[in-house]
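Can't paste images in this forum, so I'm doing it all in text. The chain is below; anyone willing to post the predicted structure tokens underneath?
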Amino acid sequence: MKSENKNFLMNVVYQGLTLVFPLVTVPYVSRVLGVENVGIYSYTYSIANIFMLLGMLGINNYGNREIAKVRDNVDALAREFSSIYGLQVIISVAAVVGYVVYLLTFGSHYRLISVLQLVSVLSICFDVNWFFFGLEKFRLSITRNLFVKVVSLVLILLFVRDRSDLWVYTAIMAGSTALSQVYLFCILHRYVRFKTPTWNAAFRHFRGVIVLFVPVLAFGVYQVLDKTMLGTISTVTELGYFANAEKVVSIPIAVVAALGTVMLPRMAHIFVDRTAEYRATIKASMNLALMLACTMGVGMMVIAEDATPIVFGPGFERCAPVIRLLSVTVMISAWSNVVRTQYLIPANRDSVYVGSTLGAAVVNVSLNLVLIGRFGAIGACVGTIAAELFIAVYQTIATLHELDAVAYLRILAAHLGKGTAMALIAVVAASFFTSHGTRLGVMLACFGTLFMAFNFRFIMRDFLGVRS
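Text version of the structure:
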């Protein structure tokens, strides 16, 4: 099996194992803390996350790409890492100071929870995931994240007991984020020598980081400000519905995004040689991404009604239509993720990446302002779908001469057809039962079995490399 397929499988296995975390914590936290407290946590974290985005700028994608280019040269690797991390320290410290100023001036609402979120903001000073991703050392990140998730899960089950424990839950979540970052930082010395960078060396990367920060910031607008605007324009209850639904839909999105995580440094390494062939690799990745996205996206739409009462418990019934709407973004984001991580960023087509996400942010905020006040979480869903669709269309048009969009559309149509067939069979099979749990189990079994049946040849021969 190719190394990138092994890395992808490792990331997918990790995503599968981490399903245990939300499947346990979301139902438990929803029942123990209640919808209002879930909304308060999401609201305060969304603000802290804005400062975290500002503190990292575009370093995650930029650093990943630049490290991948020089990873075969020990001296160049040391220079690039040291100068990029030096810039990160300067920017992240400024972000921490900015968040403290926010707490002192505007953070009186939900004060304690907002102060606890400071720990998450501080963790960006130690975030060096981009370095290990550039080296394609994915196992380290996966091992660390699994350990931290298990520890945080145990702590939540032990110490979050009633609605007054929102601060305990926040402290555990923020602390686990910080622990996760500090762990990798402590083992850096095994892989790179740190050289004290000069100001000029650090700020040499500033333009590239800023360029890639623009789409990160714009992406944060419709990923983070959705929640902030719901909490401000609508109610924290509507925010609670949206936040929980988004947690569920983020699972299939994360599985598909694992492919981009693996392929970005690989494609950046390939693009060092400008004559290298890349189209076949991207087409194969698009096929895999859309195969997974169509199956999981359509599946989420079908199971939403039965999964909601099981996962979230009473009081969260309105999560079901929100999940159905957000499931549309699974397919759309899979397309744009492949184009972005496997062509635009590795090939330094940053202007297209920037333009698409800026436009999406404008679309998202405009629709949110019009729809959230009237429709709450449903209005936020419409804004999110429109933003994701804008990105995919914009990036596709901008790369028509380099990538085979017509072939990708054929692939999309084929996998949507398979996904629809799976859905029809699953719904018919589940119609013989009345219990939510039984219906959910039957539909999941149908989707799993049919996915393997419809895609068996690809999985065995093209992905796993098994030859008869």
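The chain has a mean pLDDT of 88. The CA atoms of residues 42 and 243 lie 7 Å apart.
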